[in-house]
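Sample entry (193 residues):
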Amino acid sequence: MMERVKRYYVFALPLAPALIGYIGNILLIWFIKIPRIPVLSTLLFYALPISVLVFWFWGGMKYSRTKLPAIAAVLIGNSIGIISFLIFIWQYFLVPEENRNFTLMAWSQHYWSLPGIVVGRIYGRIYGIITRPISLFPYLRDLHSGETVTITVTAEETFIIFGRLAAVTLLTMIAVFISGYLFGKRRSVKATE
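Predicted structure, serialized as tokens:
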């Protein structure tokens, strides 16, 4: 018989990555400011993001035990992430700089900030491999001529980079959730046979 999941899981679980991200960001900032414990801060820097992904896989497994249809489970489970991403896009790209709400901007990033560390490293390497040869051509010409080359990144370019990272991280969180959901469904089917 399938285990019934309590109703508060359905509503509380989507908040968990944002709350874990908020607490994780505070811990990371706190440990970075304390140079006496560099091993612990390095451990947190890598362990927290991976633990969020593992937790989200478990969350997908919990949602597989609900009576919700698969699409509804994925949308409800990732609703806070989707809302956070939409707030991020709205505040960074659609609102003029003088009207931006910095508190809202900061809170919108807590959902994907910790997994973004892992995803950002992977995405950065892949994106760098793909774009590096293309982006270096103009600079190679300038370096050959002996001129000093200064590469500047505007605020808009930074927002675009973070927007891409947010989108890729959200998609990664959804994929991890779906994987957990499918694993949970498969496990429950095997248990009933």
